[in-house]
Amino acid sequence: ALAPRRGWVFLGLDQRLAAAPAVVSIAPPARPYAAAAKTAKKGSQKTKQEEKKKKQGSRRWPLMSKPVDDVYLTWYYERPSYDVEEAVGMLKKFQELDFTYPKQYVYINVFLDMALQKKKKVDPFSSSVLLPYRFTDEMNKVLVFTENEEEAEIARENGAAVVGGVELIKWILEDEIQADFYVAVPAIMPKLIPLRNKLRRKYPSTKRNSLGHDIPKMLQLFREGLEYMVQDERVIKTRIARV
What we know:
Strand content: 5-15%
Protein name: Large ribosomal subunit protein uL1m
Structural class: alpha/beta
Shape: flat
CATH architecture of the domain at 126-242: 3-Layer(aba) Sandwich
Distance between the termini: 77 Å
Organism: Nycticryphes semicollaris
Helix content: 25-40%
Subcellular location: Mitochondrion
Region (Disordered): 37-60
Keywords: Mitochondrion, Ribonucleoprotein, Ribosomal protein, Transit peptide
């Protein structure tokens, strides 16, 4: 809208604006629902071009040369990789520079190839491994199932936390007795079926090396061993040492 002001050059504009009839603008009626836009058919030429543009826009090519200093855009360069000895040496150096705890744990991420033939995959699993060098004084609590007195004595001598037979089933079901791992001899397995749902993956099994006749070997594995588990379908994240 024009508001006439005094001092304009156009003479008589005040009179013409005053004499002009008022114009009332009527807004178009509101549409409560907008018409849905036509979606492009799957596989159409337009959709393919849009997907191609998105891929081209998000792609970043690493540069051939290495950065000249320690301030740079990381996505322009390939991520550096080091062998184990060099990486551990760097951790020790960083520990001294950062004044962090000298006995802190060293963690590792292991990426597994879980693919099988005919588009099948290995199911995520957990297991234990006996490392050549122990880095912690912690001992796992292991329960041994056996009804043989000689085997029970061997289990006690090798550090078993709890040793017993079917009398332990009731206490385990009621959570009166708990352990980190459970091992057993084959003779008692038919009597331990009530514990299958309770113990689940900790139920004694030959696949997990928790079922057998060599009680000292099983106790050493599960008392001193490191338990690891496959996460996110193919990744093992665990600690393996101290700095």
